[in-house]
Amino acid sequence: MRIDLLTLFPEAVGPLLACSIVGRARAAGIVSIRCTNIRDFATDRHQSVDDRPFGGGPGMIMMCGPLFDAVAKVEREDPRPAVRILLTPQGARFTQSMARELAGLERLLVICGHYEGFDERIREGLKPREISIGDYVLSGGEPAAMVLVDAVVRLLPGALGDEESIEHESFSDGLLEYPQYTRPREFCGLNVPEVLLSGDHARIEQWRREQSLRRTRERRPDLIEKGQSRRSDCSRLVDEGVRS
Ligand code: 6GU
């Protein structure tokens, strides 16, 4: 997969993209990530990328010109068609299933906005898919781009050392993850649940499933409601009194 990030702050996103799972996936050639500075495509002597809104009002608006030129240049660099993504609080809410869908694509072009907003012709002309990472306002799209890239890249085949861990983690089956423990068995009087030390894999599996359901019901009942139509076993287990 190739991911292009168009941003006004490439220096802010570089270090994070060199670390951990994303950094390793890049080094292994699983994903190629490039940052392009939109300001490099400014044409006036002040290197402007934003301007005041027509009609008045507060803040600055990202201009069409530099961004359109940046998109055209970056898209020409690779024959694979890019799915354009505009990061904005006005977009569709980013979810794990969206991450899975994007992970199946060959090429993403992610536009990070800044300032009060975008010239509406950016939407009309580039027809990007608009994505938001949640119901709050960030000063810019860069943190959102890091969230999206991380969530997508870790799903690419080979990105995680242990492929198992995708299957069991929170949200992959619509539920939150069960509690986990590691050594020591006792810490400051706090003990590891006996079942996890039993070596009985069927009992462990059942305990984890119950804990997942209980935790999801307590913390995110909305996930259970959402999943009920597609997970008949879940509603059955919940009805059977995991409530205890
Ligand atoms: Cl994608 N961008 C900005 N600026 N704010 C946000 C967001 C994106 N998602 C939530 N808030």
* Count of helical regions: 10
Order of helices and strands: EHHEEEHEHEEHEHHEEHHH
The protein's oligomeric status is single chain
Judging from the principal axes of the Cα atoms, what is the shape?
A: elongated
N- to C-terminal distance: 46 Å
Secondary structural class: alpha/beta
Major beta-sheet overview = 5 strands, parallel
| Strand line-up of the largest beta sheet | 2-1-6-5-8
State mean pLDDT (0 to 100 scale). 93
User: Strand portion, in percent?
Assistant: 15-25%
How many E strands?
Answer: 10
Low-confidence stretches: none
Give every kind of bound small molecule, once each: 6-chloroguanine
* Rg over alpha carbons: 22 Å
How helix-rich are the residues, as a percent range?
40-55%
Task: Explain what this protein looks like in three dimensions.
- The chain is of the alpha/beta class.
- The chain is built from 10 helices and 10 strands.
- It has helices at 10-17, 20-27, 64-76, 96-103, 120-126, 142-153, 164-168, 201-219, 221-227, 232-242, and strands at residues 2-7, 32-37, 50-51, 61-62, 83-93, 107-112, 117-118, 129-132, 186-187, 190-191.
- Helix 4 (96-103) links the parallel strand 5 (83-93) and strand 6 (107-112).
- It is elongated and about 70 Å long.
- The N and C termini lie far apart (46 Å).
- The model has no long low-confidence stretch (mean pLDDT 93).
- 6-chloroguanine (6GU) binds next to strand 5.
- The site of 6-chloroguanine (6GU) has 12 residues, from strand 5.
